[in-house]
Design goal:
Oligomer: single chain
Radius of gyration: 24 Å
Distance between the termini: 33 Å
CATH architecture: Beta Barrel
CATH class: Mainly Beta
Number of domains: 1
Length: 478
């Protein structure tokens, strides 16, 4: 048997050092704050059969059996002023027919929040190591079993100390510094470092009458090639709060952005917007904005309904971004993970700056034995240096039914469609999955799953169908 190819020794060492530091920091802080530490190790075993392991076009399919051995752990620490979660899995893949395909993947999701000085100083930390699609115009997949060079490991982390305090009757103040890195683990992709500061001073939020706000932010992205992207903004906001749930406001300021665009390295222009916020009831909140920035008319809209069983939200926004910043934003957000799938399946990795226009709608509904999650997003990326545009649509739905204390059924589907104006290429991806889960004992569960993936494109070379049947067991240890 050929030993699986591990990731580069240096990158593994850096990840292990960061993980060790993160675990030690959590342990010491939890002990210092009289917190609780819960460590739950587990091991998952799975056997899968794929009828198209290479994601090849019709007539060129190759079948394969894949064995997975994936040990991991979950670590949770909680204290009076501290909370953290670490999930780690070491996914080992062994291929029956061609052992040179054997591979090992690290998967890490870690986050912590600490209140260093009561009501004044705080510290957030996030670390992620996942696998992502490189080029959405090539065959894509939502798993690591399929053998493709279009899926790579991505490591990212973010450290953010900040000051936040409400000076009662005077103002609310927040000063945040952040530092992050994104490493794409491939030479032709540009790793990046981001550092920035954000200052916000506002009138007290729960008072009526005239309101004001001052904001200054500056973010620098260094892609290691001598070119730096700087997003800077300063603004003053004036408004009036009719009640604690209704307000209007107007904002004016200046942006000082630097990145390559039509041979002009600097965008130094003023902007303005007017907006309103309204909470018609305890369960609903609505925000709307309209204005103008250097790239033209702009707007923002948000509506969230939060009931006991139903949560529904609609959001529309426009902002400057890069692939690295988008990835960081999604990994730091506490969501259902739906948008992370959209990034993985529908977008390509690039260091170019783009105006990101995105509208999303999500719905979750929970009963005693049934959970339903639905999501839709429509995104456009206009690249500022070339004027080219890509459009990504993504939709997903999943339902989980627990028919008894030991039997659970899951049915899910996700769909994405991408249009690339550079190549005039249209690509769609569809995935349908079904799983039956049996809780054999309180610490042992078994899962039988069937997964179907289809890709269609105006370039038939990238079209494929793949079916995966798998059976797995997971043993958890106290």
């Amino acid at each position: 048997m050929v030993i699986p190819h591990m990731e580069h020794i240096e990158s593994r060492f850096i990840k292990l050092c960061f993980l060790a530091w993160f675990l030690l920091f959590n342990f010491l802080f939890a002990k210092a704050s009289y917190g609780e530490i819960r460590f739950t190790p587990y091991v998952a075993l799975k056997e899968s059969y794929s009828d198209n392991i290479l994601l090849a076009p019709k007539g060129q399919e190759q079948s394969e059996f894949v064995t997975e051995i994936s040990p991991g752990f979950n670590l949770q620490t909680t204290g009076s002023r501290f909370r953290s979660t670490v999930n780690y899995t070491l996914q080992n893949l062994y291929y029956l027919k061609e052992s040179n395909r054997n591979q090992v993947y690290n998967q890490l999701a870690a986050s912590s929040n600490a209140e260093l000085v009561d009501d004044y100083f705080f510290f957030d930390a996030n670390a992620n190591h996942t696998q992502q699609i490189v080029n959405a115009d090539e065959p894509v997949t939502n798993n690591n079993i399929s053998v493709t060079s279009n899926r790579i490991s991505v490591t990212s982390y973010n450290l953010s100390p900040y000051f936040r305090h409400s000076f009662r009757g005077v103002m609310d103040a927040t000063v945040r510094y952040s530092y992050s890195q994104v490493d794409f683990r491939r030479d032709e992709l540009l790793d990046s470092k981001q550092s920035g500061i954000d200052l916000q001073l506002t009138s007290p939020q729960r008072t009526t009458g005239f309101s004001w706000g001052v904001n200054y932010s500056k973010l620098k992205s260094d892609f290691g090639t001598g070119n730096e992207f700087i997003f800077g903004r300063g603004s003053l906001q004036l408004g009036y709060r009719f009640t604690t749930r209704t307000n209007i406001y107007a904002t004016s300021g200046k942006e000082d952005n630097s990145f390559a665009v039509n041979n002009n390295q600097n965008i130094d222009q003023s902007f303005w917007n007017i907006g309103a916020g309204w909470q018609p009831g305890a369960q609903d909140s609505i925000n709307i904005e309209f204005g103008e920035r250097f790239f033209g008319k702009t707007g923002r809209f948000g509506w969230r309904h939060n009931a006991r069983r139903l949560v529904f939200s609609i959001d529309y926004q426009e902002e400057l971004s890069t692939s690295a910043l988008t990835l960081l934003d999604q990994q730091q957000a506490d969501t259902t993970g739906v948008q992370n799938q959209a990034i993985s399946l529908g977008t390509s990795i690039t260091s170019q700056v783009f105006v990101r226009t995105i509208g999303t709608a999500t719905l979750t509904y929970a009963l005693s034995k049934t959970n339903l999650v639905m999501s839709y997003s429509n995104e456009r990326r206009k690249f500022q240096d070339t004027g080219d545009m890509t459009r990504i649509q993504f939709a997903s739905a999943s339902v989980q039914l627990r028919s008894s204390p030991v039997w659970t059924y899951r049915l899910g589907t996700n769909w994405s469609r991408r249009y690339n104006s550079i190549t005039d290429l249209k690509t769609s991806f569809t995935n349908i999955n079904f799983a039956i889960q049996r809780q054999v004992t309180p610490l042992l569960q078994a899962v039988l799953a069937f997964n179907v993936s289809l890709q269609n494109s105006t370039n038939p070379v990238t079209d494929y169908d793949e079916n995966i049947l798998s059976f797995g067991i997971t043993k958890t240890f106290n």
